Amino acid sequence: MQLRDSPARHGLRRQVTVLTGALVAVALVAGVLVFATLLYRVLVGQLTSSVVSETGIIADAVAAHGPAAARSVGFAAAFDVQLLDPDGNVMLTTSGQTQPLSLLRPEAGLLVSQGVDAWWVPFDTDQPMLVAVAGVDYDDATYTVLVGTPLDRIHDTVSLTAGVLLAAVPALVALVAGLSWWVVVRALRPVEDIRARVEAVTATNLSERVPVPASGDEIAALATTMNGMLARLEEARDVQTRFVADASHELRSPITALSGALELMADDPAAQSGSLAALVPLAREETDRLQGLVSGLLRLARADAAGALLPVSDVDLDDLALAEVTRLRATSGLTIRAEVHPVRVLGDAGALAQVVRNLADNAVRHARTTVAVGVRFSGTTARLTVEDDGTGVPPEERTRVFERFVRLDESRSRDAGGSGLGLAIVAETVHAHGGTVTVDASPTLGGARFIVDLPAGGPS
Which of 83-92, 118-127, 331-340, 422-431 has the least mean pLDDT? Predict the structure, then answer.
């Protein structure tokens, strides 16, 4: 089965994919930031240990052998080393920096009780520096050892690592989003199968059932529940259909007997005078209407029960239309136009003849002077049109007019002969044949135009 490609079908998939991608993106960015922060702290911690260690080595040498011994210590190239005399002047520097590093410390004081202290200071506006300081007593004088190192290499390392990881985030998000879309599509495929099958279920084919996945999950439970609902609907429809059919069938016998009695009364000379002379024709007219109503109910009941199981054969739709045109020209007293081309359809000839007749009778009841009947072949569709020059059907009533027992206020009185079932029979029969029926305004006559489209078997 081909899945429909429309925004409505992709709504849930899109929401899940976007939400998953957004969550993954936020998680990855947060993870990169946390990783960069931890990496920075680890590297700074290692560098701090090295600076403090170097400061301790130099301080030990000065304490043991005096300030001159500081020059004998092998300095790491990455460190800036200074030795300050008791007055705070620079006695030794490895970087040419004559300003004591200790003066760059934001707070006052150089020494701490443990002998070595380390802090970050801005060596300049662009280069932060890590500085360790130690106070050394030698020969009744206090000297200060300062060891500093810039943090730019750590910054560069962390920035490069974070940049590489952040650059990979879009690709990872796209990969996760694609996997999410694929997983959601696979998860919703049984739902789409169920939806498509339910969409195909109508009142005439309630025997259809939705596929039940073998997964045994919530979707399988949903499919089982829907099948149970369809079974209950089918049973209710069958009960209703049997009731209508049985009632219509049982009503036929007394109506037939009543019609026969009225025929006998009409032939009785005693009924030709007095009050019976006016009542008998009225009773016969109402009996005929009742007979038509019962016949319509019975036909609808049969259409509901048969559904798509109508007898199928080749039917010349043009012949059915021409037969109605001939009948209307002989009986209606109206101008009957016909533009009929050979078209053949598959279906029940009797049911389709009833469709043409009901539309034709409806047009005659509402026409002022003219009715037009057309049949033509268009691609794979056979189109039957019946138009009149009456007042037409208001746009807001064009769907309701095909419902059962619906008669519009204008000219749909008892005297017009309408039972409210003719167009309902048309709609049921056309739908059972896989077609559609609509009504709009006639572009040529100005009244109503009923359009029946049926799957065409080809020109006849």
Answer: 118-127
The Cα 111–Cα 344 span in angstroms is: 109
Q: Compute the distance between CA of residue 449 and CA of residue 218 in angstroms, rounded to an integer.
A: 49
CATH number given to 218-303: 1.10.287.130
CB atoms within 10 A of CB 46: 11
Summarised one tens digit per residue, pLDDT across range 367-398 is 999 999 999 988 789 999 999 999 999 998 88
**Tokens 């049973």 found at:** 235
Fold classified for 1-200: Beta-Lactamase (3.30.450)
Handedness of CA 291, 294, 298, 299 (dihedral sign): positive
pTM over 0.70: no
Residues paired with residue 252 on neighbouring β-strands, in sequence order: none
Distance CA 334, CA 445 (A): 13
Distance separating alpha carbons of residues 258 and 279, to the nearest angstrom: 14
Q: Report the distance separating Cα 409 and Cα 431, nearest Å.
A: 26
User: Which of these CATH numbers, 3.40.50.300, 3.30.70.20, 3.30.565.10, 3.40.190.10, describes 310-458?
Assistant: 3.30.565.10
User: How far apart (Å, rounded) are the C-alpha atoms in residues 372 and 339?
Assistant: 8
* Residue 364: Cβ-neighbour burial (10 angstroms; 0-12, 13-18, 19+): buried
Whether residue 116 contacts residue 53, with contact meaning beta carbons closer than 8 Å, is answered with no
The domain locations on the chain are 1-200, 218-303, 310-458
Distance CA 301, CA 12 (A): 41
Q: Count the Cβ atoms, other than its own, within 10 Å of residue 298.
A: 18
Which tokens hold the place of 317?
Answer: 């739709």
For residues 53 and 28, is the Cβ–Cβ distance under 8 A?
Answer: no
Largest CA distance in the chain: 160
| Least-confidence region, from 166-170, 185-189, 384-388 | 185-189
Question: Given the DSSP bridges, would you call strands 90-93 and 313-316 parallel, antiparallel or unpaired?
Answer: unpaired
| Six-digit token string for 445 | 């006559």
Phi, psi of 344 (to 5 degrees): -120, 140
